[in-house]
Design a protein that fits this description.
Layout lengths: L6 H16 L3 E6 L6 H8 L6 E5 L5 H16 L10 H11 L5 E6 L4 H4 L2 H13 L5 E7 L2 H9 L11 E4 L5 H11 L5 H11 L3 H10 L4 H8 L9 H10 L3 H12 L5 H7 L6 H9 L4 E4 L12 E4 L2 H11 L2 H5 L3 H31 L2 E8 L7 E8 L4 E7 L8 H14 L5 E7 L5
Parallel strand pairs: 1-4, 1-5, 2-3, 3-4, 10-11
Antiparallel strand pairs: 6-7, 8-9, 9-10
Helix pairs in contact: 1-2, 4-6, 9-18, 13-16
């Protein structure tokens, strides 16, 4: 599949590269979940006349790793690298020294893996970087997909590399226009429901989109027949993504995420479903350490408002927990026909939340709003509005009801909700009322 979008990211990375080459060395951190396209982006953004060294940190003996790296550095830079270097710190010192007379990009992928190889690498790198960065021209890109570890390495005050990064880039999924472009390239006369199915499953994660584009016809049946089958690459994907993040406590986190994926999205409902255990600490870590869920309050609610819901931030993980993790017994029995039937029968309901997220994403991409969210009254969902956007124009807002089918919209009922919204929250606002459905994607 061709390389799509990332125009802004490529432009920024190339700007940083030029600053590194024309001024002094720069350190850039690129994070994002696995399959998001960090490696492809970094390699594409560093293409040009200057050499690029790409190093992938696999979990192996440090000396063996250094032998492999030394060969790659010598080959890519056309420089002699002494044999027998047994530590990465020594190799990094030598490589930074080359930056005094050579301008090059150095990409280190899965950088957080050094924590499992040799913890002293981080403090040694700090000393070397501080010593050499002002006298060299190295465009250093450090990438990692284990978010909690990368955050600890670079954002924890007590860690040696804290404050050393010049730039921090975090990748997310494709934008809505890019997904529409991809659908147009691979399925000329696609329907918006097929576009929604692609978004519901992948959330715009490039690798997942690529798999579906190359191995399915992108019809709804084609997508689900591929995703829910024996030997599907998606069956164990959620577990593979998160086991390393959570470690031995993964079972508790998986249970909480399964609750949220199935619609039990308040702390009280989660704790009740799990037998009354306390989950406050786990929820806090899922937000702050792992960035897997977010805390959602009604728009303009006070920061300490107790009207809180939790949402999984990743479309694919929401899908995986709701179907693959939830139905492990069916998977163990290899009854994929039954599981596929469950998914297809549930799709119209399950994709409703994804449709809301699609329109929130589109509204965010428009840059017309200073705040976006939903609104509801604590204690019930009768007075609930899917999306409320506060526009840059003062005291002007939009209230949106999201329906798969426009015919199911009841304007009189919605108008009453909007009046409650204006009375209780948006005093003095002019509020535009609208409905968005599949046809508006």
């Amino acid at each position: 599949m061709k390389f799509y979008n990332r125009t802004n990211e490529i432009s920024e990375l190339r700007r940083i590269r030029e600053r590194a080459f024309n001024s002094r060395s720069r350190m850039t951190i690129i994070t994002g979940r696995r399959r998001i396209g960090k490696t492809s982006l970094a390699i594409r953004a560093t293409q040009g006349d200057s050499p690029v060294v790409y190093l992938f940190v696999s979990r192996k003996n440090e000396k063996a790793l250094c032998t492999e790296f030394a060969e790659q550095i010598a080959h890519q830079l056309g420089e002699y690298v002494p044999g027998g270097i047994g530590s990465f710190s020594e190799l990094f010192l030598y490589t930074m020294g080359l930056g005094k007379r050579i301008k090059f990009s150095l990409i280190i992928d899965e950088f957080q893996e050094f924590a499992n190889i040799n913890q002293s690498v981080f403090s040694d790198m700090q000393n070397i970087w501080d010593t050499y960065r002002n006298d060299t021209h190295v465009n250093l890109l450090l990438m990692g997909s284990v978010y909690s570890m990368m955050r600890k390495i670079f954002e924890s005050y007590h860690e040696p590399l804290f404050g050393r990064a010049d730039y921090n880039l975090r990748l997310s999924g494709f934008e809505t226009d890019t997904l529409k472009e991809i659908m147009g390239d691979f399925r000329k006369d696609y329907t918006n429901d097929e576009l929604l199915a692609l978004y519901t499953i992948t959330g715009g994660v490039p690798k997942y989109v690529e798999l579906l584009c190359e191995d399915t016809d992108l019809s709804i049946d084609g997508i689900f027949d591929y995703v829910v089958r024996d030997n599907s690459p998606f069956i164990n994907e959620g577990r593979n993504l998160l086991i390393e993040e959570f470690g031995k406590d993964y079972g508790e986190y998986f249970s909480i995420l399964s609750c949220i994926a199935s619609g039990l999205n308040t702390q009280g409902k989660i704790e009740s479903s799990l037998g009354g255990i306390t989950v406050a600490g786990h929820l806090k870590r899922l937000i702050e350490d792992y960035s897997l869920i977010k805390r959602v309050r009604p728009i303009l609610a006070k920061p300490r408002s107790q009207s809180v819901r939790y949402e999984i931030t990743d479309n694919f993980l929401r899908f995986w927990f709701n179907y693959f993790n939830r139905h492990q017994t069916i998977i163990e029995l290899r009854n994929f026909d039954a599981l596929r039937e469950i998914v297809k029968n549930d799709y119209a309901t399950f994709s409703g939340r994804a449709l809301e997220n699609w329109f929130k994403l589109k509204m965010m991409e428009s840059h017309e709003f200073i705040e976006l969210g939903g609104w509801w009254e604590k204690g019930g969902s009768e007075n609930e509005i899917d999306i409320v956007g506060l526009r840059t124009l003062k005291n002007y807002a939009i209230a949106v009801e999201v329906k798969r089918q426009r015919k199911n919209f009841k304007p009189e009922v919605f108008r009453e909700k909007v009046e409650q919204l204006k009375t209780k929250v948006l005093h003095g606002y002019t509020v535009e009322e609208t409905v968005l459905s599949l046809e508006d994607m």
